[in-house]
Design a protein that fits this description.
Blueprint (H helix, E strand, L loop, with lengths): L1 H25 L3 E6 L1 E17 L2 E5 L4 E6 L6 E2 L4 E5 L2 H29 L5 H26 L2 E3 L4 E6 L6 E2 L4 E6 L4 E8 L11 E5 L8 E8 L9 E7 L11 E18 L7 E6 L2 E6 L1 E5 L3 E6 L6 E3 L13 E3 L2
Parallel strand pairs: 1-21
Antiparallel strand pairs: 1-20, 2-11, 2-15, 3-10, 4-6, 4-9, 5-8, 6-7, 8-10, 11-14, 12-13, 12-15, 13-14, 15-19, 16-17, 18-19
Helix pairs in contact: 2-3
GO molecular function: efflux transmembrane transporter activity
Protein name: Efflux RND transporter periplasmic adaptor subunit
Pfam families: Beta-barrel_RND_2, BSH_CzcB, RND-MFP_C
């Protein structure tokens, strides 16, 4: 009986000790450990932009009026000068008829005065006045002709109608883009780069693109143009990156652009979130040992370590906030 009681007490003591050990262990922060490995260190400049044809034009209305005719031509080829849409021009046409009637009257009046002059019944001043009146009306006709032309919207270039915005019966506002006409290839990406990053961007640099439409495909281009003047308000500079002929990207797609400004092969890399104030936490058993490192190229996902770390050593990634040198850890593989 005595032995049985001792056994029970010992079992309970072991359970309590185990629970205490488990409780103490569970209080240690759980972290992932990543081994430092060799790879290519890449320094990039981030930008956002959209895909556009190299040669294209936005076709907008210059006046405000109702659409009475519009082509069903998305995807169709058009030539320069082809009619894309017409606006309601009844009022301006009526004004033109009035001007034409006045022109006809003034022409006959000028002819009548000319005949009177030959008979000595009119003065040269009357003839000049009739001529000036006719010229004034003819000037108004020229202006009215230009106004009427604005009611017919035509293609400014040869190309394909990439997009149409507008329907019969809608009111076209002045400046409203109704069509986008262009040549589908070649394509380019037009992006905005922060002004503090633009000194690192140069012609010919490789640009890597990411879009949700092609999440697992490598998409790239090359810098073909850098605008000489930035946007003071947005504090950005516009860049253009030429795309290869076989790119799957389509006009109008939005992309994230990463301009590769520097590359270094066979560099020792650790995740970016493992580095805090030029230091990493190296995993030493169940402890974290803080170690100062010298870093080189900083990328979005990885940082080059020049000194202070060896290949294969595991570092805490990401390093938890408030972690201290010697802290106990529960290490899991990423």
């Amino acid at each position: 009986m005595q032995k049985r009681r001792i056994f029970v007490i010992a079992a309970v003591a072991l359970i309590v000790i185990g629970a205490l050990v488990w409780w103490r262990y569970s209080q240690w922060p759980r972290v992932a450990a990543v081994a430092a490995a060799r790879g290519t260190a890449v320094e990039i400049v981030y930008a956002t932009g959209g895909v556009e044809p190299v040669r294209w034009a936005k076709v907008a209305s210059v006046i405000r009026d109702r659409i009475v005719e519009i082509c069903d031509c998305e995807g169709d080829r058009v030539a320069k000068g082809d009619v894309l849409a017409r606006l309601d021009d009844r009022e301006v046409q009526a004004q033109m008829k009035e001007l034409r009637a006045r022109e006809a009257f003034l022409k006959s009046e000028l002819e009548r005065v000319s005949q009177l002059i030959t008979r000595g019944s009119a003065t040269t001043q009357a003839y000049e006045r009739a001529g000036m009146d006719l010229q004034q009306v003819q000037g108004l006709i020229a202006v009215q002709t230009e106004r009427i032309n604005d009611y017919t919207i035509v293609s400014p270039i040869d190309g394909i109608v990439l997009r149409r915005d507008g329907e019969i019966g809608e009111i076209a506002e002045a400046g409203q883009i109704l069509f986008r006409v262009g040549v589908p290839t070649p394509l380019q990406v037009v992006a905005e780069v922060n002004e503090e990053d633009i000194p690192r961007v140069a012609f010919g640099q490789v640009v890597l693109f990411r879009t949700d439409a092609f999440p697992d495909r490598r998409l790239e281009g090359k810098i073909s143009e850098i605008t000489p003047m930035g946007d003071v308000t947005a504090k950005t500079f516009r860049i253009k990156a030429a795309l290869p002929s076989d790119t799957p990207l389509k006009p109008g797609m939005s992309v994230e652009a990463n301009v590769v400004t520097r590359e270094k092969p066979n560099a020792l890399l650790v995740p970016t979130d493992a580095v805090q104030d030029s230091a990493v936490f190296v995993v030493d058993g169940v402890h974290a040992r803080k170690r100062a490192v010298t870093v080189g190229i900083r990328g979005t996902r990885a940082v080059e370590v020049i000194d202070g770390l060896k290949e294969g050593e595991r570092v805490v990634s990401p390093a938890p906030a408030g972690i201290k040198d010697g802290a106990r850890l529960r290490v899991t593989e990423p």
